[in-house]
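Researcher: Structure for this, please.
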Amino acid sequence: MVSIDSIIDALYDVISDKRGQSRDWERFKYLFHHTGKLMSADKAKDGKIETRPMIPVDFIKWAEPFLLDKGFFEREISRKIEKYRYIAHVFSTYDSKRSKSDEEPFARGINSIQLLYDEKRWWIISIYYNQETKEYPIPRKYLVNKHK
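Model: Predicted structure, token format:
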């Protein structure tokens, strides 16, 4: 059985690598249920809160040029898991760096990850994410108690 921990660890591992290094996108897609989606929440230029839903293939097309050009290492810094029967919710706080050796992250945020257990393994159903801003810093309760 693929555990929740191994799915979340693989998610961060598969998108993190140095500049110019292609990611293992087949592994990335394997983490998701066939109905899986990714979605950001952010404020548009007109001030409205909007989402950008993507299936994994669309996310790859959108993210790959940035990841190849800049380098990207995302690290989980806190994890909170809630689980009942076939569903689980993970609130996963992260920071992002261009290089593993960078002292300070260029971004932080929270991934809200929903998973489904099909009696064989856990699958990502959705990742809904929001980046930290100066106006909305990540609350302390989401910066402590890393699950592992």
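Researcher: Any notable elements?
Model: The beta strands are 32-43, 49-54, 73-84, 87-97, 107-117, 122-131. Residues 66 and 73 are 12 Å apart (CA to CA).
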